[in-house]
Amino acid sequence: MVSHGDRVIHFWIEYNGRMSSSHDLHTHSTESDGTLTPSQLVERAAAAGVEVLALTDHDTLSGCQEAAAAARSAGIAFWPGVEISVSWSGTTIHVVGLRVDPESAPLNRGLAELRDHRQWRAEEMGRRLAKRGIEGAYEGARALSNGRLVARTHFARFLVQTGVVEEERKVYKKYLTPGKPGFVAGRWAALADAVKWIRDAGGRAAIAHPARYKLSNMKLTCLLKEFRAMGGEGLEVISGSHNPGENNAMASLARQHGLLASVGSDYHGPESSWLELGKLPKLPVDVEPIWQGW
Ligand code: AMP
Ligand code: MN
Ligand code: MN
Ligand code: MN
């Protein structure tokens, strides 16, 4: 027999389980292209009311240990994660792995290869920018990365700091996107490999910020079908880089394809974020959250 009080409690748990504002499952630290250290990120998230945080640095798990310790001190839950760079059908796609084992050997081997490729790409970007008269961009980006992996983000920051371009958004448009002088197409992981590494590490894979790729409906459908057939389980329905219409459209796609819904700000730091931590719209009630069963 369930008493009235139990029912209230069950309703409360169910309701809160769907409140996405307390989950932020896509964030970056100084271990990739964020500007806060893992500890600073965790402290800021806790202060903003985040109850469950995942750190998902690009192609590395190196911040997870520090973040986990900081989360224990701050009294919030922490899920180790990663954002894997994938090349799929001529496009770069990002796949988030959540609740992965940071010690997983196959995952760490795969990520190490991606970081090697990233290093080559960063040097090549530097050479191409130098041909356009922009000297020292690789060294500058490398210095801004504090010896961690170098992303286009570090190049963007360097070109703004040195006055070559007024703002970061314009750097991508002028120099760092396909067809532009500093762009070097990455040859990233195969989608199937990224999904397999995440699953081998005990985690769930989700397609990050699906509305950002500007894929046609047909191509996006194709991606989601392939992804699901490979063992991918989630779609980032709510992203700091989506507008409200895109969040709704992605919720429909998650339902249509039987994918679990994830939620993440894609936070990169106080000065360069789409959205503040802990300020995410709620997940619609008719999608299943990716933390279902966890
Ligand atoms: P990479 O993985 O080195 O190609 O760098 C990708 C990162 O660059 C993304 O995770 C963002 O942090 C950043 N980025 C890419 N495009 C843009 C953009 N248009 N505006 C702001 N940041 C961007
Ligand atoms: Mn980034
Ligand atoms: Mn991304
Ligand atoms: Mn990201």
The percentage helix is 40-55%
Q: Structural class, please?
A: alpha/beta
Our measurement of the CA-to-CA distance between the termini, rounded to an integer number of angstroms, reads 26 Å
Second rung of CATH, namely the architecture of the domain at 116-176: Orthogonal Bundle
Order of helices and strands: HEHEHEEHHHHHEHEHE
Q: Can you count the helices?
A: 10
Q: Name the beta content range.
A: 5-15%
User: Mean pLDDT across all residues, rounded?
Assistant: 93
How many beta strands in the DSSP annotation?
7
Major β-sheet strand ordering: 1-2-3-4-5-6-7
Low-confidence stretches at least 5 residues in length (pLDDT < 50)? Answer: 1-20
For the CA atoms, what is the radius of gyration? 19 Å
List keywords for this structure.
294 residues; alpha/beta; DNA polymerase, domain 1; seven-stranded mixed sheet; 10 helices; 7 strands; disordered N terminus; binds adenosine monophosphate; binds manganese (II) ion
Explain what you see.
The chain has 294 residues and is of the alpha/beta class. The chain has a domain of 61 residues: DNA polymerase, domain 1 (Orthogonal Bundle). Helix content is 43%, strand content 14%. The chain contains 10 helices and 7 strands. The chain has a 7-stranded mixed sheet. Helix 2 links the parallel strand 1 and strand 2. Helix 2 runs parallel beside helix 3 and helix 4 packs antiparallel against helix 5. The longest helix has 27 residues. The protein starts with a helix and ends in a 30-residue tail after the last strand. The N terminus is likely disordered. The site of one manganese (II) ion (MN) has 4 residues, from loops.
